[in-house]
Amino acid sequence: MLPKFMLSKSMLYSDRGHPASSVFDFVFGSVGAAIALVLLTGSFALGQSNKPQPHNKPVGGGAVARGKYIVESVAMCGQCHTPRDTDGSPERARWLQGAPVPWQPTKPDSNWPISAPRIGRTPLPASDGDMIKLLTTGVWTTGNQLRPPMPQFRMERGDAEAVVAYLKSLTAQQ
């Protein structure tokens, strides 16, 4: 019985009678290309699940853990809302307790805030509903859009609720 794939003599030797490098290039180039394609498409999981895995998201802990992840790793709220020590590091003992805004506008702006308010611990600066509205629409209790440099968040409601749960969970020494 003949194999399903056979190389012709012309594929094995160049016209000078020497073994053709094209066979090597064909076999190993094709294998290399196939491996690269599989790795690039993510089909080769080395025994891992093909389900997408969240990067650095909390595995458990419910809404507070999810809110902590959003506040500390996504929205980076501590960058503005936490005072800094003499080395420029956030003071964890005063986490999210308000601080001078670390950036100034490139052009003078009388509407630019000079301090970021306290957002951690209860009572929050506004009701849960108002905080969720702020995080989902970018609108404060006054009906005004947030002022730069505050990002105009448009979080999903579940994420905003998780952020509020985390902010309310903070104690004086976090």
Number of strands: 2
Number of helical elements: 6
* Main sheet record: 2 strands, antiparallel
Q: What name does the CATH topology of the largest domain carry?
A: Cytochrome Bc1 Complex, Chain D, domain 2
Q: Nearest-angstrom radius of gyration?
A: 29 Å
Give a written overview of the molecule.
The protein is mostly helical. It has two domains: 33 residues; 108 residues, Cytochrome Bc1 Complex, Chain D, domain 2 (Orthogonal Bundle), CATH 1.10.760. 37% of the residues lie in helices and 2% in strands. The chain contains six helices and two strands. Helix 3 packs across helix 6 and helix 5 crosses helix 6. It is globular. 16% of the residues are buried.
Descriptive key words:
single chain; 174 residues; mainly alpha; Cytochrome Bc1 Complex, Chain D, domain 2; 2 domains; 6 helices
Helix-strand layout with pairing:
Elements: H1 9-12, H2 21-41, H3 62-74, H4 78-81, E1 99-100, E2 115-116, H5 128-137, H6 157-169
Antiparallel strand pairs: 1-2
Helix pairs in contact: 3-6, 5-6
How would you summarize what this structure contains?
This protein folds into 2 domains: 9-41; 62-169, Cytochrome Bc1 Complex, Chain D, domain 2 (Orthogonal Bundle), CATH 1.10.760. It is 37% helix and 2% strand.
